[in-house]
Design brief:
The protein is an alpha+beta fold and about 110 residues long. It is about 20% helix and about 20% strand. The longest helix is centred in the middle third of the chain and has 9 residues.
Length: about 110
């Protein structure tokens, strides 16, 4: 039935078109192929971007890049700061959404 035409379009109802699945990261020229996979992709927060910092959560263990404004809002809303501790700020984690002890890296 490959050589015949299908005037009513019944083949379209019962066959899926053959398409190649595209990787959206293939077009990203800023990310090296080695950096997309494995441990680096899991634990990296990306390159430094001006006006951003990193929040490291002690509860879920993730590093999340956030804007300085977002970090400031999280600190302005109910928070606690104990200088000298490794995780010195008690704020809401942007990843797990729990209030926990976090470390803020302003210039990372």
């Amino acid at each position: 039935m490959t050589g015949r035409s299908d005037p009513r379009g019944k083949r379209a109802l019962f066959e899926t078109p053959k398409t190649e699945i595209e990787d959206p990261l293939d077009d990203d020229v800023l990310v090296e192929p080695e950096e997309r996979d494995g441990r680096t992709a899991l634990f990296s927060t990306g390159e430094h971007q001006p006006g951003t910092g990193i929040i490291v959560c002690s509860h879920c263990g993730t590093k999340t890049r956030a804007s300085h404004i977002d970090i400031g809002v999280r600190i302005a809303l109910i928070s606690l700061w104990i200088p000298g501790k490794h995780y010195s700020r008690w704020i809401q984690c942007p990843n797990c959404q729990r209030r926990s002890w976090c470390r803020v890296e302003w210039l990372a």
